[in-house]
Amino acid sequence: MLITALYLIPAVLTPLLAVAMRIGAGEERGARIANVAVMISFLFSWAVVVKAPWTPVDDFARIGHIAIGATVLGFALDFLTPKRLVAAIFAGIFVIGAVWSSVTDQLMPFVPTWDVAVLVAILVVVAFLVLARLDSMRARDVTALVLITVAALSIAFMALIAGATGIFTGALVLALAVVAYAVLQTAVTLPIGDALVLGAGSTLLALAWALGHGFPDVRLPLLLVPLVFFAEGTARRIPLPKARISTILYPLVLAGMAALPCALAVLIAYAMVRA
Question: Residues 144-161: pLDDT tens digits?
């Protein structure tokens, strides 16, 4: 019962923090920085619910460090509002560092072997594409939030199948924090900023890497998860009533479209793990 109740932490903490920031920091700045509440809730849950180790000795423990770094950088970009090119450069440097440390288990640069260099390059490109896709959707209603949620849930289900309990819990609390922010957005004008895009996006990538690296059976189905971020085009082609109900129907349609590749990925993961 206690474990179930702990899962409510991100769902409750996210709107409370977001509203407090919205009120406390003023109408304009408060709205701009309130999205960091999602990642604060995730990190608090990472410590209290997941109880993950903080010494970055492996992929799992490194997730928290990547989430903290992405959140701090994203919050700084939201607070200072530099030009998008400057923000992209800082985000790019962070992504390269995060990928490098994940693949090589260290931050210090060295001359890698060709296979390590190729892997780092591929993962950097994938990370850039995912984060750029999320960044391009930030101004379109709850699109980015819906897709982050579906991607996190797909990773959670695959982790559950593989027996990766910590990754399952981490992905689930991230999904709950994002959903809570999406629900709050229906009542309060709160934009999606760099803290959420960079923070949640980098955390998703770190969760996926830890799952794929530690559990080879789910590597193939994990390749289907990025398809989630291209479900928007299909969802927008589905005709919806012009009445106000469409604001509720569209997120459900989008979630349904995004869930299709995820359901296939989970089924493949189940078949490969049980084979």
Answer: 999 999 999 999 999 999
- Token readout for 7 is 């899962």
Residue type, 235: A
The model's pLDDT over 245-273, given as tens digits with 9 standing for 90+, comes to: 667 788 888 899 999 999 999 999 999 99
Which residue, chain included where needed, has tokens 């593989």?
Answer: 162
Range 249-258 contact pairs with CB under 8 angstroms and sequence separation of 24 or more: 250/141, 251/141, 251/142, 251/146, 251/182, 254/143, 254/146, 254/147, 255/146, 255/149, 255/150, 257/231, 258/146, 258/147, 258/150, 258/151, 258/228, 258/231
**120 and 99 in contact (C-beta within 8 Å)?**
yes
Please tell me whether the overall predicted TM-score, pTM, comes out greater than 0.70 for this model.
yes
